[in-house]
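Appendix C: a fully annotated inverse folding record. The material below is reproduced so that readers can follow the format used throughout the book. The structure is listed first as tokens, followed by the designed sequence.
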């Protein structure tokens, strides 16, 4: 299981990603180690990051495609960069 480095998201002002999220980074990390599914109520952008941290890019992409916010666009671009598809990440 890969643990993501979320320091890159710390400056994001969107509540689904940034420091105003109700879940702390430590709680998010713990859920990666102890849960088989994302925590209930987790916003779609964070669900996507949760799935990619567990190594499931396809589920991550599926979750973030449902998100229409700016945070969703950031995560969507991140996923495509991680995949190596920089052209798609530019949208």
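Designed amino acids, in order:
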């Amino acid at each position: 299981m890969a643990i993501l480095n979320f320091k890159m998201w710390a400056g994001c002002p969107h509540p689904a990603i940034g420091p105003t999220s109700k879940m702390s980074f430590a709680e998010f990390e713990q859920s990666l180690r102890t849960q088989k599914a994302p925590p209930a109520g987790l916003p779609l952008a964070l669900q996507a990051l949760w799935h990619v941290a567990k190594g499931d890019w396809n589920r991550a992409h599926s979750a973030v495609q449902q998100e229409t916010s700016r945070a969703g666009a950031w995560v969507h671009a991140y996923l495509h960069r991680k995949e190596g598809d920089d052209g798609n990440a530019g949208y």
